[in-house]
Amino acid sequence: MTGNQTEPTDRESGDWRSELRDSLGVCGLPDQQWADFLAALEVNHGSVMRLHRRWIDDAKLQCDSDGLRAGHLGPPVPWYHGAFRHGGTWQGRRPADTLRYAAGDFFLQDAGSLLALAACGADTDELAGSLVCDLCASPGGKATALVEAVGESGFVLANEPIRSRLAALEFNLTRTGSDRWAISQKDPEDLASQLTGQFDCVVVDAPCSGQTLVARGKQSEGSFSARQVRHSAARQNRILDAAVRLLRPGGKLIYSTCTFAVDENEAQVQRIVETTSMVPVQLEALQDYRSVTDGCYRLWPHLHDCAGAFAARLDADGDAMSSRDEASPPHGRDRFSSAKRHKNRRDRLRPRRFEFDPGDWITDDVAGLHQRTIIRGDVAMCVPLEAPDWVPLIAAKLPELAYCTGKTWKPAHGLSRRAFASVTPVQTIQVDDARARRYLSGNVIDCALRGWVVVTWQDRPLGWIKSNGSTGKNHLPVPYRLTGG
Ligand SMILES: C[S@@+](CC[C@H](N)C(=O)[O-])C[C@H]1O[C@@H](n2cnc3c(N)ncnc32)[C@H](O)[C@@H]1O
């Protein structure tokens, strides 16, 4: 795409601007905004920092001022509590090179992607204790916020059908420090057949023509073509129909895209309203971003300093859904019968005794108290006891507990990161900034302890070392290391 701006009257065939203008349909911009919109489309708006909820005061959802403001956080993102602009560097470094980022204090994402999270109340207590499905989850910009939002009594199933995208999702979920998640790799229709009527909230951040991503070089001009829009809309129809089936009566559906085309946005919502008992929800907090269709919200690059975004909120009419689902078994264990039939034979769900002793690494009795442990091949994973029965049967990946090399079991990196939540390490070593940076760069660090030790920085767990009483060998997996020096 070139930087040339085109007048609204330019309609020669094949021009991406006219295709874009056509695709906006009823959401078309007034002529006087068109040039600004086109110019803003080509600007890279940069990412914002979404703070982990543990750094936001629970009672008032006020930003914890401990060092965050001093680190030169910019203005807050108006549509999402706890997200801030940062102006390119923070604490003199790129945000992704800071110790706070390595420790999981914040995530970096486009401000527009926070619109969908605001629509489901992920920045409030609305989702606390909920069972949430993120149906199109990788790389996890939304799933990580959802995991934080459901807290210690909820659970998130992060589904991503494309295998090659699971690693990024797992990486980001591990950074949350929570064990209240599982990853599935299912086609949405298959998932809906297995888990009909289970979820309090389903988030569909749908694959789309990606018209907002052109400035970031992630999408070509082809994303503006009517053909591409039609192709995406057809896929969205299928995903949305599956999403509705996954909802329990009274549950909420969040639909979002990163495209402008009305056929992928408002028209999808309209279709769902007309063909199901879902009801659009007007959200007081998002009134400034209302679109032409009830329950729909938009951000524009020239108005809101972000790539642009669409989000909608629809709630399931409890009564209508109950009668629709009368033929289905009630909410509860029976629902999982079909999933149970497909029980994964690789799982050893309740090993008679561990082939390793997690008590060498953590003080909690992982087996008996809070977790079910599942061993698949060389990896031991865990599920909170209160999570639904179907979780191990559906999950492609779960929070890791340990892994085996040769005959030796070693603690998984994810276990060290959960030192915030369910896990208490037997041994920790507190390090200052310089040693933290050395550790996060993959180096050994001095340590007078022996055995497995969690390295902590400002009380935040960073990862494991195995120490011989003088030197701690670095066990931080490469993807979690800092690259900025
Ligand atoms: C817009 S991205 C999701 C971004 C993610 N929610 C986040 O916030 O980081 C859409 C995702 O949907 C996945 N996807 C592709 N086809 C799909 C399908 N048929 N059903 C569900 N998800 C699909 C893509 O692989 C991609 O990871």
UniProtKB/TrEMBL annotation:
Residues of the SAM-dependent MTase RsmB/NOP-type domain: 37-317
Bias type Basic residues, positions: 338-349
UniProt biased composition (Basic and acidic residues): 322-337
Renumbered residue ranges of the record's region Disordered: 320-349
Binding site for S-adenosyl-L-methionine: E160, D187, D205
Residues in coiled coil: none
The enzyme's E.C. designation: 2.1.1.178
InterPro entries: MeTrfase_RsmB-F_NOP2_cat, MeTrfase_RsmB-F_NOP2_dom, Nol1_Nop2_Fmu_2, RCMT, SAM-dependent_MTases_sf
GO molecular function, one term: RNA methyltransferase activity
Keywords of this entry: Methyltransferase, RNA-binding, S-adenosyl-L-methionine, Transferase
Active site residues of this protein: C258
Leader sequence residues: none
GO terms, biological process: RNA methylation
PANTHER family given in the database record: NOP2 YEAST -RELATED NOL1/NOP2/FMU SUN DOMAIN-CONTAINING (PTHR22807), RIBOSOMAL RNA SMALL SUBUNIT METHYLTRANSFERASE B-RELATED (PTHR22807:SF53)
UniProt similarity note: Belongs to the class I-like SAM-binding methyltransferase superfamily. RsmB/NOP family.
Name used for this protein in its record: Ribosomal RNA small subunit methyltransferase F
Biological classification of the source: Bacteria, Pseudomonadati, Planctomycetota, Planctomycetia, Planctomycetales
This protein's encoding gene: rsmF
